[in-house]
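Entry 14. Ran structure prediction on the chain below.
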Amino acid sequence: MTTETAPSEKLDFKRILPILVIVLVDLMGLSIIIPLLPLYAARFGSSPIVIGVLQAAYPLMQFVGAPILGRLSDRFGRKPVLVASQIGTFAGFILLGFANSLFLLFVSRIIDGLSGANIATAQAAIADSTTAKTRTQGLGLVGAAFGVGFVLGPILAFIVLAATGQNYQAVAFTAALFSFISIMLTTFWFKETYQEVENPEASRKRNPFSMSATREAFSHPTIGFLLILMFFYQVAFGGYEQLFSLFTLTRLGMDARDTSGLFVLAGLFIIVIQGGLIGRWSKIKGDRWLVFMGLGALAIGLIGTALTPAVPIPWYEKAKVLESLAGQGEFSVSTQSININLPDESAKGWFGIIWLLLASFPAALGGGVLHPAVNSLITKASNKNEVGSMLGASAAMYSAANAVAPLFYGALFQWFGGPVPFFVGGLILAIMWFFAPRVVKV
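Output, structure tokens:
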């Protein structure tokens, strides 16, 4: 018996390597623009609320598209759906590069969002390629690929911005290049992982265009609660991610290059957590423990971020930050059109940035373990021929949360000040941490 079961205890890394590389390249493209998007919108006179609406456009469209594409991947396979979604991402980045108005920024994010099932489909492919015992480790490695992408993406953004004089368009076209590379990798390297099992005829008859996929997922008691957990944790963490660069700009006077550096540090930490520790923790402590630990760590990180002292970084110069926001050449705008309150230069120092760095570590820890741990529990509670659908529903809840989060955070940011939304997000997670052990029993 030991000889027969031993292979299932070990992750088949060669089998999942193409998926990890594709996710890495995809995320490099995405993470190049993450620190820039709020600043991109600020260039066109956007307020924090409008910036929140822009950030919400992508996940809102993803909420519509992810369940449909998840079901299509159960019907036609992972590969064709993955390629189609990557083509949409590529088109969105190209349009972003040519955007000379807030309207085109919105259109670019809508196009990308509607086709944005890349990660959900990749997670389904990982689930196809792992066993129940190795699934958390496999999904954790997808998260590690996220982390590597979030390290390399901001580094590339920093290099491109420095080489082009803060040219945001050049960053968008660089993101499009990586998206094109991911299309080529999927087309010529990735091998289909999905095989219909149990009742393939029922799978084919299932209507892929029905929005009932998420509703069906909620009919499973365990999966339903895990989806609720995914939603509320991502409302708190998604707002943190999407408005972080606006917070660092208004609180510490950090421009796109400075914030990219923080994303690099967070990405390095996530690589360590998801690439090396989460699999070990899952085997020793279990996914349930990972969820509780992640909620507590993330709550501490968000509340700590909210308490960051308003001490601008030592090298902060208000005029230079305004100049970088305004841009250069035919896509430049007047600094008078920028509707963002920047700190003054009277109290510069190291205290603010050091405090923020310390708060970022528990935030990265919580964000690094929660997503793969929750998704692993979802796949373990699902029938094998429904894994794509259940992960599609998870992606839909994740996207819905990401749509709500920037609107929620943006409104609080504008009406009550930058620290308030981060504190509220931390409070939501603290409440969840208190109640989750009483509800999550798997």
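Residues 1-7, 202-210 have pLDDT under 50 and may be disordered. Will compare against last week's run tomorrow.
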